[in-house]
Amino acid sequence: MSARRAVQRALGIGLAASLVLAVSAGALAGAQESSVAPQSPTLSPALINRMLACYVFVGGGSGVLISGDGLVVTNNHVIDNEDDISVRTVDGVTWPTTLLGTDPVGDIALLKIDEGARTTAHRTFTYAEFAVESDLIPGIPVVAVGNPFGLGDFDDLPTLTTGILSSGRIVRGDYTDAVQADAPVNPGNSGGPLFDLQGRLLGINGQIRSLTGFRINSGIALAVDAIQLHAFLPYLQQAKGGYARHTTLPDGLELKQGLSGVVVTRAGSSGLQRGDVLTTINGRPASSVAACTGIFSSLPFQAGATCPVTFSRHGASQSLAMVLPHFPIPGLPYHGMSFTEDSGLTILDHVDGDSPAARAGLEAGDVVVKINAAPISSKISVLRAMISVEVGDPLQVTVRTRGGETKTVVLILAQHS
Amino acid sequence: MLAIMPPPISRRAVLVPALCRPLAGLVVGLLLSAVAAAPLSAMDMHNGIVAMPIGDDELESCGGSAVVITADGTAVTLSEALPAAYKDPADTAPLLVTLPGGARRWAHIVKRGTTTTAIELHIDHYPASAGMVAVADATVPVIGCEVWTVGNTTGAIADDGQPALSRGTISGVYDLPVDAPVVRGRMGRILSDYRGPVYETDAGINDGNQGGALLDARGHLLALVSLGQARERRLGTAVPINLVLDDLGLKSTRVPGAAAMVDTLATVALKAAGCLALIRFERVSGLGNPQGVPRPPRTVAETPSYDRDQVTAWWDMYYAQSQVFYTDQPAPAIVIDAKAGLLITAAGNLHGGVKHGLIIGNGPAVPCEVVAVNEPLDLALLRTQGALPQTSAVFSTQPVHTGQAIELVTPLRIDDAVQVAMTRGVISAVGRRLKQTAHAWLQISARANYSSLGSAVVDDSGRIVGMSALLSPEGEWLINSGVSMALDGSEIAHALDKLKAGVNTERLPVLGMGVTLNEELSGGRLMITGVIPGTGAAVAGLRAKDVLQKVDGVPATSQAAIARALLKHQAGDKVPVEFLRKDVVLGDKTATCQVELTEFEPQQ
Fold first, then answer.
1. What is the pLDDT of residues A154-176, one digit of tens each?
2. Domains A246-327 and A333-415 share a fold
3. Chain B contacts of A164, Cβ < 8 Å?
4. Do B536 and B465 have their domain in common?
């Protein structure tokens, strides 16, 4: 085989060269130090301690402290519809938390360590500062901290791994604002921090991609990046245990990949025109249809807020502030009530334990008077009142209790699990 | 007494410093010290890396990669990066490739190689702004030198216009044997049919990287990435660029010396490899494909749709099983006393009650026998008649710390030569406790697989900080996960006297109170299901159905929480145990008792 011969020939050359060097180097025996810069980052014990101190164990996964008073971010899939969650700091102390808000689309959840527990313990937590966009530089060394395979459940030791940032901000699958890293990440790392060597939080590790399909490290760890975490933070803080929502593509907008870029084939309500070639969306490059779709879905939804879009029309650069609709949270809305009709009244026949309705204080036997301002006269009218509700929507329910009192409560419709 | 001959210098001994040849590491270091490390930005690495189109075959999740090596758009790739339809040489239809930044261009296949699966492409109207990659002289690759993979990983270029980067080292240099079976992925997809010389790397190689770049630390093209793997390693490989260019008859200026970038850690780790040995055990039973799953007769794509679920599941099971281990694979060992002929290895390498082995190398094989085994430590001591040619291992006496860089240095035999493979990582945790063992482990992040068990974890002083011992204590971790355990030097030293005296240790006692617990929680706490007579718990008066509240001040919320609370104690210590006793007559009451801790044999 000529390939084999070629490499053997090449080796022959290498051999001769090496021998010459070895001989001439004989007198320098012991001078084995290399002048090549170390490939592995030097991590100071102080930096490592800081990175570990802001790590928390959360259920089967991980989380990271982002404030001294105990705000913790993790992945939505780590808390997985539970609201009675405790976290454990690396000193082995377990802290009760409250779920402030969650983002099932972006896979982010925000917990708050209960103030009572914190003040009783006289504790101010070490926390991570968010990185900013200019910190997300492909190729920089990174550190991941996590609880792979639940190893730390037994000894409170998190796992530290290192690698580099494989990408800048990317869209990958359902992660619309993410970074990729090659540090080993495994099940149990989810929700845990990805740091740069200044200890800044680049993102939270949430997904692994692998060639084999096994759920183990492959060198592809996807983290929800600090930009998206930071953007969603105020919405999660205000969610009162409910949901922060994402934006999505304008109604009717259709895109196609052309040789010159992503082309508008149908403008819908976007304000663009057929044939426009997208350049950037919210300052991020419109590099493919998948990227555009992802970026349109990457922002926190707020009614009336706009997203800057730049594009080329007949060769001229133009820009547009586009109003984006909200992305419906997938799943069936769940309130936890079942209804019965009796003597012309619609009565709560059962309220599931730990459901949104139960948490709002509704009880079996309550007579339903109104839902979202619509008077309730039958089970059909209940369905009618809820025909367009989505997961995450508030549901205003007025009932007459068994005690004869009339009360109105607001519950947040949950994702049906 | 058996005379040990020094191993002859194999042809590969230069390429990869061979075992027992500490000088080789020195050569490497000196070769490289003249090379100044130029700073390289990631954006430079994006230059000239293009995405191949995705095919219609549902087994392909994204297109592969190609690397542009001339300013006018000549690119090289491997046939495994072509969409399935283009693998037929008769097909000359153009391919739509994606450039860095996201622009699309048409490309044509110009030539197909005959020996390396290399493909030459020409990209029409290739813009100079998309860049190109300078070709390295890949004839002197060195284990441990820094490399980067750059490619269309899971569709990175096609989706975001940015190739994905991963940094690692050249972790091995060997030939994929000509008679090796085709490397297949899930659902029977053929990943690579290349055979021949490769560089193995611990940098990330994933779907989409095939045909893409393996760059050296200065950003020069060293090799084209392949999804082919050695069965012993299951790590990504790359085809040396000089073979690719020769195969295609392409002339290219090759930047000399750029391949050789080895830092101090790699240099000293290669030197430390002089204490490693490779042992062939006659195993009674193997672990490779332990369930004996037969290979599915056809791929999912070849299967009618009504049968696909079944064939997919079959492939997944076969693939998982055949990842595990190979019975005929020799195992690493560390020579701890060359003069006395003593070696240690991971006890896991002796499965099936192996008592004898043969130390293999480039010279005559040397018989060795198992002296004793410490099962809980996963440590075995072996002995030969007479001295060994290796150097004796030098263990570190310095404390290790989390985040410290290490190399996992493994002797390896693929095809016909014994050589060194070396993966890079950090200490991920110090003092890792696992449920089933009483001692502390060093957790490391370097890629480790079944061929690593018994190999050396080396720090930047060139000393050994541990022996790789455990990949999968509970059967849930898989190879190269970046999570594995090593036994540290002090644990080894501690166990050696008993091992040298031929004393086997089957189990280590665990510490307990003397109660059995139900995993079901009662009011958030564990309930006692039974008390073992004569133990501390029995003496203290604990009973079944008592609900543990706190053990040594720690809430008894899980068995792990209790075990954690007891870790800092020794047998004979008394710990306060707060418990709730439910009594319908007298009413529930909470009380605290002092329980003396006892050592138990762990349950099998």
1. 888 999 999 999 999 999 989 99
2. yes
3. 165-167
4. no
CATH topology of domain A333-415: Pdz3 Domain (2.30.42)
Confidence of residue B285 (pLDDT cuts 50, 70, 90): very low
Across residues A227-231, what is the average pLDDT? 98
Instruction: Please report which residue ranges of B284-415 form alpha helices under DSSP H.
Output: 308-322
CA dihedral sign, ordered A182, A183, A189, A191? negative
Crossing angle for the helix pair B241-248 and A2-24, nearest 10 degrees? 140
Active site residue A107: yes
Q: Do B443 and A219 touch (CB under 8 A)?
A: no
Q: Are residues B352 and B479 located together in one domain of the fold? A: yes
Per-residue b or e along A68-90, where b marks 16 or more CB atoms closer than 10 Å to that residue's CB: eebbbbbbbbbbbbeeebbbbbb
Q: How high does pLDDT run on average in chain B?
A: 83
Nearest to A160 by CA among A259, A270, A76, A43: A43
A335 labelled catalytic: no
For residue B325, the model assigns a pLDDT of: 55
Query: Which of B33, B160, B197 has the CB atom closest to A170's CB atom?
Result: B160
Domain that holds residue B137: 42-260
Task: Confirm or reject contact between A14 and chain B (CB < 8 A).
Answer: yes
- Reported as a pLDDT band with limits 50, 70 and 90, residue B413 is confident
Antiparallel, parallel or unpaired: β B417-433 and B405-414: antiparallel
Q: Are residues B538 and B497 in the same domain?
A: no
- The tally of domains found in chain B comes to 3
Residue A106 backbone phi and psi in degrees, to 5: -90, 0
Residues A246-327: name the CATH superfamily: PDZ domain (2.30.42.10)
Residues of B whose CB is below 8 A from A148: 481-483
pLDDT (tens digit, 9 = 90+) per residue, A48-93? Answer: 999 999 999 998 899 999 999 999 999 999 997 676 789 999 988 8
CA–CA gap between residue B518 and residue B529 (Å, rounded): 6
Kindly name the residue from A62, A166, A190, A298 that is annotated as catalytic: A190
State residue B572's pLDDT score: 83
Residue B450, in any domain of the structure: yes
Lowest mean pLDDT among A294-303, B145-154, B361-370: B361-370
Is residue A388 less than 8 Å (CB to CB) from chain B?
no
DSSP per residue, B284-322? SS--SSTT-PPPPSS-STTS-GGGHHHHHHHHHHHHHHH
pLDDT at B289: 60
Residue numbers in B near A152 (CB within 8 A): 429
Cα angle at B341 between B338 and B346, to 5 degrees? 95
Is A319 known to be catalytic? Answer: no
ipTM of the complex: 0.85
pTM of the model: 0.84
- pLDDT at A29 > cutoff 50: no
Nearest CA of chain B to the CA of A380: how many Å? 41
* CA-based nearest residue in chain A for residue B447: A184
Q: Which amino acid is at B116?
A: T
At B327 the pLDDT is: 59
